[in-house]
Amino acid sequence: MPIISIEQLQAAPLDYLIIGGGTSGLTLAARLTEDKNVTVGVIEAGGYHPDSTEINIPGYLGRTLAHPTYDWTFFSVPQKHAANAPIIQPRGKGLGGSSAVRNFIAVVYDTLFNYFSQNNFFGMFRPAADEVDALEKLGNPGWNWASVLEYFKKSETATRSDYSPENAAKYGADPVLEFHGTSGPIKKTLPSVLTEAHALLFDSAEALGLPRNGEMANGSNVGSMTGFQSIDPKTAKRSYAASDYYAPNAKRPNFLVLLNAHVTKILLEPGSAGSQRAFGVDLTANGDKFTVKGVKKDIIVSAGSFQTPPLLELSGIGNKNILQSHGIESVIDLPGVGENLQDHVCVRSIVEIDPSYETVDILRDPEVMTKQLELYQEQKGHLANVAAPGYMFLSSGHLGIKDKQQVWNKINDGFSSEKTAHLEPTLRNGLQKQYEIQKSWWKEEHLSQAEILIYIGHQPVPTPLPVPGKRYTTMVSAVMHPLSRGTVHIGSSDPLAAPLIDPNYFGNDADMEVLMETLNFTIKLTQTPPFGNIVRSYVIPGGEALAPDAGLKDRMREHIKQGCGPVFHPVGTASMLPREDGGVVDSSLKVYGTDNLRVVDVSILPLELAAHTQAFAYAIGEKAADILKGN
Fold it and tell me: Where on this chain does FAD bind (predicted)?
């Protein structure tokens, strides 16, 4: 059915109501409505933008950042371990959620705050098998690699490139299709434009001991690769939840979507054996208040890691002390709500390279851009691709810190009773179990602890500006398994107020040690032939900052503090864990203390994984559909 009105939704015989039409939410809705006898309502706070060039054209980089139509543009609270600055936390706004603006970032410090320039990234990656198996070890039966792999595959259609065997080896792009989906809604493909600088970086990585890995979707992702991007090769447009889970099914009479409506509270009533039953929601649209009632089966929250916890709290579910401090009646005391926030923290580097090497910096020339727009009409050229095709995933061994006692001391210090004394006992229990798993990963050579993302060009940031005619390469160094834990909570009883987001970057100093060593590896890449031979100068950090003297380490630490930020993969704030371990939902995604309220988004992941979260968000929606169908 086309987009509906509030009155139509109120009158509909709803079996399921999904709050949030994002990546996981639309996946779930599309699968549930395959049954013509099931009616599903989706309430999305943003709009629907099927014809937006900002969303659809892969090469239009950064055009959704801080745009009120597409981005919620949240900010963190000041980060005391990172220059005491608030840091932007973009989230997709509109049908498709963050899959519509799934982005890549670059960071530059400003005197007021850390400013981010966000570039469309489109990455479709998976974590290692051991990481997914850890979900089951934490008390979630059925959430293991073998099971989740089938949902990764179910969500996607992979197109194998026509690279020659030589280029497949050269660019670390030799996927085995048995590990990929071939008939799912989301299209993914390898880049059609490859640059020589990209391959030279991989050569330098091999010289430093990091091999190419042509197939990273098979449960082992250490190495250098050219990654799949969520782009439809037939149209050269972004493939995302709204374009491929919603649009083909929009005419289903049982698939109801309400736009530009903000849910303010989930309505609960006494259910079975002391539990609560969700039966409706309060919402606001255009300044007016409405209520939707009579949901027969389940209400599902799919608002994402930053917006799911506040909605639960506004509905009386969460830490009773936080709720009572804002005058909200505690219905279910669930201390894990909004806790355990984790994200990949990163910092960037930019070098100027030999101008004879092609990069996307050429797009700053109006004549070149005109020609590229013409090529795009034929699904060719730089605009049909994302300029961040290369990724390196490194183990602690590659970083040289697997046996570094200084780092181990800081890791162990994070587990101390002093550092965890402020936590509610169930949260402390869960955190201890998570840390034990993370510690075990540290010694494994086949598991990634860091990532280096490669952007073939100068990312568009306020300063330093690129010089016309020059060519650049940007690399972003990121921590994959942060030990720091943050929070997301309401700051008042106002349902339209932005959440209080505290990522607590470097709350555990081991994360700083890992990021410093990752940045060190990145700098070594730029100094190691053959890529090192084409580097002309250091832009960020500047060459003077890299002087090999006694102050180098302190300057690198300061560079990170001043320029760090997230890779926009927040997880953990409605963790899928046993209740006695601080969990919010069980392995069927049901909120503890309720009969029929579930969470379906990446906030359920109790551990940050060495992968970008887009593919996992689709897998969660797919698996949730089977859970609700009873499969």
Answer: 23-24, 263
* Amino acid 106: pLDDT: 29
263 annotated ligand-binding residue: yes
Instruction: State the DSSP string of 219-270.
Output: S---EEEEPPBSEETTTTEE--HIIIIIGGGTT-TTEEEE-S-EEEEEEEEE
Residue with tokens 């799934």: 102
Examine residue 530 and say whether the peptide bond preceding it is cis (omega within 30 degrees of 0).
Answer: yes
The two structure tokens encoding residue 59: 């090469």
Q: What are phi and psi of 358, to 5 degrees?
A: -75, 135
pLDDT computed for residue 112 by the predictor: 31
Rg over CA atoms, the chain:
23
Residues involved in catalysis = 569, 612
Which DSSP letter does residue 78 get? P
Angle formed by the axes of helices 23-32 and 614-629, to 10°?
30
pLDDT at residue number 51: 83
- Expressed in angstroms, the distance from the first to the final Cα of the chain is 26
Tokens of 14: 């709803």
Convert the pLDDT of each residue in 258-315 to its tens digit: 999 999 999 999 999 999 999 999 999 999 999 999 999 999 999 999 999 999 999 9
- Cβ-in-10-Å burial (0-12, 13-18, 19+) of 450 comes to buried
pLDDT (tens digit per residue) in 93-115: 777 666 655 543 323 333 333 33
**Paired sense of beta strands 16-19 and 288-293, if any:** unpaired
pLDDT of the residue at 432: 92
Q: Look up residue 287 and give its amino acid.
A: G
Among 25-34, 103-112, 302-311, 539-548, where is mean pLDDT lowest?
Answer: 103-112
Computed over every residue of the chain, the mean pLDDT equals: 91
23 is in an annotated binding site: yes
Q: Does position 485 have pLDDT exceeding 60, yes or no?
A: yes
| Nearest Cα residue to 399 out of 548, 562, 503, 525 | 525
Measured distance CA(622)–CA(148) in Å, rounded: 9
Q: Do 130 and 222 contact (CB within 8 A), yes or no? A: no
The one-character DSSP state at 154 is H
Strands 535-540 and 223-226: unpaired
Q: Which residues of 590-610 are buried (b: 16+ CB within 10 A; e: fewer)?
A: bbbbbbbbbbbbbbbbbbbbb
- Is the predicted pLDDT of residue 341 greater than 80, yes or no? yes
- Identify the pLDDT of residue 108: 30
Closest CA to 587 of 602, 595, 573, 575: 575
The beta-carbon contacts of 360-368 under 8 Å, at least 24 apart in sequence, are: 360/59, 360/61, 360/387, 360/456, 360/457, 361/457, 361/458, 361/466, 361/470, 361/471, 361/472, 363/59, 364/466, 364/468, 365/468
DSSP H helices in 282-424 = 308-314, 320-325, 366-376, 396-399, 405-413, 417-420
